[in-house]
Amino acid sequence: MERRNIGLCIVLSIITCGIYGIYWFIVLTDDVKRASNDTKLASGGLAFVLTLVTCGIYGIYWAYQMGKLVMKAQEERGLPTEDNAILYLVLQLIGLGIINYALIQNSLNDMNENPE
């Protein structure tokens, strides 16, 4: 898991018209999968393609699952857990997915400070 500057990621996503946001989505998915030792959720690249093909429906499922997997990773590290699955789901539904990215990245950054 790479520690990323959240503000910089948001700025890059905006100035590249979302291209960096796609990259961020892919690496976030892969980082969360690695952190939680998940084998069920699609890889970052596949999750992106599935989100495109389903016109965003998979992205809603993805957001909910990210909340559950982040919580699992926090538990495995003995950190205080937060079940943000519903929050991520609602943010995704109202079109604020970039906030999900920031929240997930923040959790990953916290986990970097407390590795297994």
Distance between the termini: 12 Å
Helix content: over 70%
What profile does the largest beta sheet have? Answer: none
Order of helices and strands: HHHHHH
Low-pLDDT runs of 5+ residues are none
Shape: globular
Task: Give the count of structural domains.
Answer: 1
Task: Say how many strands there are.
Answer: 0
Report the β-strand fraction as a percent range: under 5%
Our Rg estimate from Cα atoms comes to 13 Å
Instruction: Return the average pLDDT rounded to an integer.
Output: 95
Q: How many helical stretches?
A: 6
Structural class: mainly alpha
Compact summary:
The chain has helices spanning 6-15, 19-36, 44-53, 57-76, 85-93, 97-113. It is globular and about 35 Å long.
Task: Describe what you observe in this structure.
With 116 residues, this protein is an all-alpha fold. It has one domain. The chain has 6 helices and no strands. Helix 2 crosses helix 6.
